[in-house]
Write a structure and sequence with these properties.
By secondary structure, the protein is of the alpha+beta class. It has one domain (11-162): Histidine kinase-like ATPase, C-terminal domain (Heat Shock Protein 90, 2-Layer Sandwich), CATH 3.30.565. Helices cover 25% and strands 25% of the residues. The protein is built from three helices and seven strands; from the N terminus they run βαββαββαββ. It has helices at residues 15-32, 53-69, 130-140, and strands at 11-13, 36-41, 49-51, 76-84, 87-94, 144-150, 154-162. The strands form two sheets. It has a five-stranded mixed β-sheet, with helices on one face. Strands 1-3 form a two-stranded antiparallel ribbon. The chain is globular, with a radius of gyration of 20 Å. The protein starts with 10 loop residues before the first strand and ends in a 20-residue tail after the last strand.
Length: 182
C-alpha cells in the first residue's frame, strides 16, 4: 500500500447487481453463525455508477466479514445502500460487540485489532490490515469512511463514494450496409 500506487480501473457498474451477488456469496458464512442478513436500497432502480467493481467488492468483503466475525450468534448484519446528493452511501451495520470510544481512532491503523476474538492458541485472527486497506481503497475511489460504535451494541461503518453517473447507453453508430442479394 505505502510503496506502490493502487490501480483503479473504473467501469460502468450495476451496483445493485454487484451487491446482490456479493450477499449471495457471504450468506452461507453468516448462516454458520446463525446471523440474519438484511439489505436495503433506498430506491429502485438503483443508479448505475462508474467505479472499480473489484475495489468495491474488496470494501464490501472486508467490512462485511468483519461484521460477521465480531457479531455473536443470533445477531444481525445489515447492508444499507443509499444514493444521496451525488454520493453513494454504503452502511454496514451490525449488532456485534462494538468498539470502545477510545479505540475508534486506531482501527484504521496498520496491525491494529481492537477487541479481536482470540483463536485457539491465543493468536489474534487476521493481521490487522483489513481496515487499513479499506481506508486506502475508499480514498483512492475519491471517498471517505467513518465509523460509529457503542461497546456491547454494535458498529456502523459508512463508506461515502462519489456517485459518478454512467453515461446513458447510446448504440454505436452504424454504417448502412447494402442489402444482401436475394
Amino acid at each position: 500500500m505505502e510503496s506502490g500506487k493502487l490501480k483503479v480501473e473504473p467501469k460502468d457498474v450495476d451496483f445493485k447487481k454487484l451487491v446482490d451477488q456479493f450477499l449471495d456469496e457471504v450468506q452461507p458464512i453468516a448462516e454458520e453463525k446463525q446471523l440474519t442478513v438484511y439489505s436495503h436500497f433506498n430506491r429502485e432502480p438503483f443508479p448505475r455508477l462508474v467505479s472499480d467493481p473489484r475495489l468495491i467488492r474488496l470494501i464490501l468483503n472486508n467490512l462485511f466479514t468483519n461484521a460477521i466475525k465480531y457479531t455473536d450468534r443470533g445477531g444481525r448484519v445489515t447492508l444499507s445502500c443509499k444514493a444521496e446528493n451525488g454520493n453513494l452511501l454504503i452502511r454496514i451495520i451490525d449488532t456485534g460487540r462494538g468498539i470502545a470510544k477510545n479505540d475508534l481512532g486506531r482501527i484504521f491503523e496498520p496491525f491494529e485489532q481492537v477487541g479481536a476474538p482470540k483463536r485457539r492458541g491465543g493468536n489474534l485472527s487476521g493481521v490487522g490490515l483489513g481496515l487499513t486497506l479499506v481506508k486506502h481503497v475508499v480514498q483512492a475511489l475519491g471517498g471517505k469512511i467513518e465509523v460509529e460504535s457503542d461497546l456491547g451494541k454494535g458498529s456502523t461503518f459508512t463508506v461515502t463514494l462519489p456517485l459518478l453517473q454512467a453515461q446513458p447507453f447510446r448504440p454505436a453508430e452504424t454504417t448502412p450496409r447494402p442489402a444482401d442479394p436475394i
